[in-house]
Design brief:
Number of strands: 0
Number of domains: 2
Radius of gyration: 25 Å
Helix content: over 70%
Number of helices: 7
Mean pLDDT: 87
Largest sheet: none
Structural class: mainly alpha
Length: about 210
């Protein structure tokens, strides 16, 4: 794997880029990513590295282009890492976490570049204010997913976000029935009755002399 990619020609311009480059080199030295067979194929692994290298090089492009490369590189690599560890739970090696950390650093750099942008249109500024916290929240879920699956944490102790999402999606009919029973048949009715009774009691108290 170390013969596939050369890191000598990469010239990052941020500390996140330099740190990510070091992590990539460490991942190559500690190859493979998982102990399971077949694990990550050569094509998938090469694509992960290429996406991360592309993101590292993003600072050499204009900001508008660079931020797109950072976003695609960091999140594309993270998606491939998560896709590969699914079904191979508990087999992640140090190189897997090094690549995940590199992707996280580059996503951090992406947020930094986005924060420095000053869009002129109002809709672009609004979109920017939404994108930045969305990336932050997404990475909480990405790291949660990667750690629980990579370390093989029993789902009964700490299920990954994807498993929670699947369970919620499969339970929508039950949840809808519970919401209808709780909210529409109990809470709203109780709120109306309680508020009405309180209003009547307040009027009565105001009208009756003490």
């Amino acid at each position: 794997m170390s013969d596939l990619l050369s890191l000598s020609s990469i010239t990052p311009r941020s500390w996140q880029g330099y740190a990510a480059l070091v992590l990539l080199a460490g991942a190559l030295l500690l190859w493979p990513l998982v102990d399971a067979a077949p694990g990550y194929g050569i094509a998938t692994a090469a694509l992960i590295f290429l996406l991360l290298l592309l993101a590292i090089e993003a600072d050499n492009f204009p900001p508008a282009i660079g931020v797109v490369l950072l976003f695609l590189g960091a999140h594309g690599a993270a998606w491939l890492l998560l896709a590969g560890i699914t079904g191979n739970e508990g087999t992640a090696r140090a190189s897997f976490y090094l690549l995940l950390a590199a992707a996280w650093l580059l996503a951090w750099r992406c947020v930094t570049v986005l924060s420095a942008l000053r869009p002129t249109s109002r809709w672009a500024a609004t979109a920017l204010r939404l994108i930045i916290p969305t990336i932050f929240g997404a990475w909480i879920l990405i790291i949660w997913e990667a750690v629980t699956r990579g370390a093989g944490i029993p789902f009964i102790l700490l299920p990954p976000p994807s498993a929670i999402g699947v369970r919620i999606a499969n339970s929508l009919p039950v949840l809808a029935a519970d919401v209808r029973q709780t909210i529409f048949k109990a809470v709203i009715f109780g709120y109306v009755v309680g508020s009405g009774a309180g209003f009547i009691a307040a009027i009565a108290a105001d009208r009756v002399p003490f």
